[in-house]
Amino acid sequence: MAELTTIARPYAKAAFDFAVEKQAVDSWAEMLGFAAVVTENETMRPLLAGSMASSQLAKLFIDVCGEQLNEHGQNLIKVMAENGRLEVLPAVAQLFAEYRLEWAKEIQADVVSATELSEAQQQQISVSLEKRLARKVKLNCSVDAGLIAGVIIKAGDLVIDGSVSGKLARLSDKLQS
Length: 177
Fold this sequence. Notes:
By secondary structure, this protein is an alpha+beta fold. The chain is built from eight helices and four strands, in the order H-H-H-H-H-H-E-H-E-E-E-H. The longest helix is centred in the first third of the chain and has 20 residues, at about 1-20.
């Protein structure tokens, strides 16, 4: 995966910079997302790895995407096909999404709790994270009864484990050392 990210980064960065310049970040995100889905299609995947000429592959890919790609999106597909890099489109879309979140000063936080969180609890977590991270926070909440009680919050590199099961694990580690 690291190699794919390395290959995809220049394409994602160029697409993102262009999208920001043209004030079309949302439409580019949609285009790249759609192209990534096409790339992962079981019918399309063997064609990407095959020996088809790059111009033919680009034309086929653009035809499959249809009106989902504008002229600039089609140009990106042509360049990537010419360089034999269409298979990294999902990684390009993922990196583009990360650049977009960073640009919007927004971060997604995964909140796993032992029980369903109320609106007030979600709001309190969101406000606290926004203050701590200096960004707008979007919560993805889920429930895992295995936590016993409490929550685990993951936002980028930040992990806050306030679960009882996490505290028990840390206590067990301390007792064993």
